[in-house]
Amino acid sequence: MGQEDEGMTKSLYPAATDPSAKGINEETVRMISRAKGEPQWMLEFRLESLRAFLTKPTPSWGPDLSELKFDEIRYFVPAETEKASDWKSLPIGIRREYEQLGVPEAERRFTMGMQAQLDSEVVYGRVQEELDRKGVIFLDTDTALREHPALFRRYFGTIVPPSDNKFAALNMAAWSGGAFIHVPAGVQLELPLHSYFRVRSKQIGQFEHTLIVLEDNAYVNYIEACTAPMHALDALHAGVVEVYVGPGARCRFTSIQNWAKDIFNLATKRAVTRRGGLMEWIGGNIGAHITMGYPSVYLSEPDARAEMLSICVAGAGQHQDAGTKIIHAAENTTSQVISKSISRGGGRSTFRSLIQVQHGAVGSKSHVVCDSLIVDSKSRCDTYPELDVLERDAEVSHEASVSKIEGEQLFYLMSRGISEAEASEMIVSGFVEPLAKELPLCYAQQLNELIRMEMNSAVG
């Protein structure tokens, strides 16, 4: 779109009569902010972000985004119910929806706190009393802005600024919901915190904004799950995640994405890690029509570390374009990236990575492994690694492999009475096992089940 944006603004982004109207302009943004009762500084921040969105071009270096129509999207759909702290308080239709997804059961068994967002707003949130005793804050982002304004303003939009890219700017103009986590110094959370994001309405954009702040030597394991029903009408998910990892702290961020295959999933996720801190990104991308997501880490101080482990499955009509960006900006920083992708049924998977070692980052080490599995001749995978090493005293390596399900493997298993479909599932399960073993049991089972369903559709 580029230079055409300014001349097309009036027709592309029509004036809205209410916050849930299609299209976005200044009046839409003002209505969203007014509906939420936000302070003046946040309204001004939103308007600045809107200007950045309108002037920045749509990325042209990745998947084809020409089908994405910004003027056909509703940027805010208010919740039909007040936020509840008890599942039984939710309307029965919403409650059954989450029960079918197993969310209440996951909360009872595996988490210290849960947030559930439906379309634009969080409809459920509850934490264990232990979190309050330890001084941990786990709220939806809208509530955090109201109840902790100084802490919120200190970090919001600092790790991912509106100027970063078009979709980050759009998020910060229209953001609603998401999770806010603050873990005080020295607090180690044994069980994870969990957020569930679901898109139910047609032609909607979901723009949750998650902000995680870990003080010195703190630890949190945060899990987000994303899903949506199929409407055959394009929807947009453009979330933003900002993570601050203090000295000696550790954050494990796990995301399992199973959006419907008519959704554009265009998320921006970034962490800043200080001395001796560790940021772990663990991701599974199964759904969406187009995914563009490159979780990144800025290793800002000595001995900071980053680890990324991801799997994506690209089926018919899907392009999973994912990867990572890691900046080594201090000495003795380390990073490790393991990426696995499966392409089947004409799907396409793309891995993009940038590992940069800046001047003065002596003793830095990075290792990137990218493995791709192609199930049939209709499918495709691509790898675009970039190594930008500006320091002589550094060790950086990249390795990639592309393989197919071998006939000999299938024959060996089928000769023992295993069907072709089951044999393919076993081979794929072995391929994704490094990711599955890093997840809590219930999430590993969900991931394996999602992949099994995808493979069954591939072999009929």
Question: In words, what does this structure look like?
Answer:
Helix 10 (407-414) packs across helix 11. Strands 3, 4, 6, 7, 9, 10, 12, 13, 15, 16, 18, 20 and 22 form a 13-stranded mixed β-sheet that branches. The protein has helices at residues 4-12, 26-36, 40-55, 92-100, 103-110, 129-134, 141-147, 149-155, 166-174, 407-414, 420-436, 441-459, and strands spanning 113-118, 121-127, 137-140, 179-183, 193-198, 205-206, 209-214, 219-227, 235-237, 240-245, 250-258, 263-266, 268-273, 278-285, 290-293, 296-299, 305-314, 319-328, 334-343, 348-357, 364-374, 380-389, 394-404. The protein starts with a helix and ends with a helix. The protein has two domains: 69-413, no CATH class; 414-460. Helix content is 27%, strand content 35%. It has twelve helices and 23 strands. With 460 residues, it is of the alpha/beta class.
Structural descriptors:
460 residues, 13-stranded mixed sheet, alpha/beta, ten-stranded mixed sheet, 12 helices, 23 strands
Q: Could you give a quick summary of the protein structure above?
A:
The protein has 460 residues and is of the alpha/beta class. Residues 1-17 have low confidence and may be disordered.
Which bin fits the share of residues in helices? 25-40%
Poorly predicted sequence stretches spanning 5 or more consecutive residues? 1-17
Number of domains: 2
Helix/strand structural class: alpha/beta
Please tell me how large the radius of gyration is. 22 Å
Helical segment count:
12
The span between the termini is 40 Å
Determine the strand fraction and express it as a percent band. 35-45%
Average pLDDT, to the nearest integer? 85
